[in-house]
């Protein structure tokens, strides 16, 4: 579809349509074909994610709601996508508008509790790849060296939960537990996020771990069935 047709269909000014089309092209959602725009490969990739992610979200919702009722804090369901954490569900708690997460939003895998919970159970090759690409700093508490991150992943595998204290955003703490599918592969993570002065990780760890284990049983039962 050409620019003139996009302007006609949207009813927006030509300059606005041109700017938005360029931004969508940069994001991979559109692609240029001569003087026309076509759907981009990124839309195809997202479309491929929908059936599996939707089923996972539907199976997880009862467990996420249980965690929300128990904590009244923001609850997430996250997966790995393109070496980042992507949130596929979010139940908003106290002060949720200030948290950096959003449904379909991405955050660095090494700074988030959900990301570290998943990374701890990823393949050595994937962990090596994440470390080799660098670990950007978001706050002064972010783990930015391979040694720091690998040491943290060992602890997570031992305790079954990941804790993130102000590594993504100052003033917030998160606790996450992995959800396993076939062959004990970590397919998602459930987390609770809240203000550091309000959320004690020790008090929510059992709730998060119980929810993750419950969803794991549901997923593995559906696979074996």
3D architecture notes:
- It is a single chain.
- The chain has 225 residues and is of the alpha+beta class.
- The chain contains 7 helices and 8 strands, in the order ααββαβββαααβββα.
- Helix content is 47%, strand content 22%.
- The chain has a 6-stranded antiparallel beta sheet with strand order 5-4-3-8-7-6, with helices on both faces. Strands 1-2 form a two-stranded antiparallel sheet.
- A hairpin with a 5-residue loop joins β7 and β8.
- The longest helix has 31 residues.
- The mean pLDDT is 89.
List keywords for this structure.
225 residues, alpha+beta, 7 helices
Short characterization:
This protein is of the alpha+beta class.
SSE inventory with pairings:
Blueprint: H1 3-10, H2 14-26, E1 30-33, E2 36-39, H3 41-71, E3 74-81, E4 84-91, E5 106-108, H4 113-119, H5 124-132, H6 146-159, E6 162-165, E7 172-180, E8 186-195, H7 201-224
Helix pairs in contact: 3-7
């Amino acid at each position: 579809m050409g620019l003139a047709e996009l302007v006609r269909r949207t009813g927006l000014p030509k300059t606005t349509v041109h700017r938005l089309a360029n931004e969508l092209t940069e994001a991979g959602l559109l692609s240029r074909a001569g003087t026309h725009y076509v759907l981009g490969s990124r839309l195809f990739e997202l479309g491929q994610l929908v059936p599996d992610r939707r089923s996972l979200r539907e199976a997880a919702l009862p467990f996420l709601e249980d965690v929300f009722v128990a904590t009244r804090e923001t609850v997430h369901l996250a997966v790995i996508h393109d070496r980042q954490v992507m949130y596929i569900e979010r139940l908003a708690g106290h002060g949720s508008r200030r948290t950096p997460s959003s449904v379909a939003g991405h955050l660095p895998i090494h700074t988030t509790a959900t990301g570290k919970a998943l990374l701890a159970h990823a393949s050595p090759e994937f962990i090596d790849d994440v470390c080799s690409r660098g670990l950007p700093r978001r706050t002064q508490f972010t783990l930015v060296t391979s040694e720091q991150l690998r040491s943290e992943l060992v602890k997570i595998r031992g305790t079954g939960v990941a804790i993130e204290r102000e590594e993504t955003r100052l003033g917030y703490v998160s606790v996450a537990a992995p959800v396993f599918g076939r062959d004990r592969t970590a397919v998602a993570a459930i987390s609770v996020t809240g203000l550091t002065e309000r959320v004690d990780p020790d008090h929510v760890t059992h709730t998060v771990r119980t929810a993750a284990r419950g969803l794991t049983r549901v997923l593995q039962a559906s696979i074996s069935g």
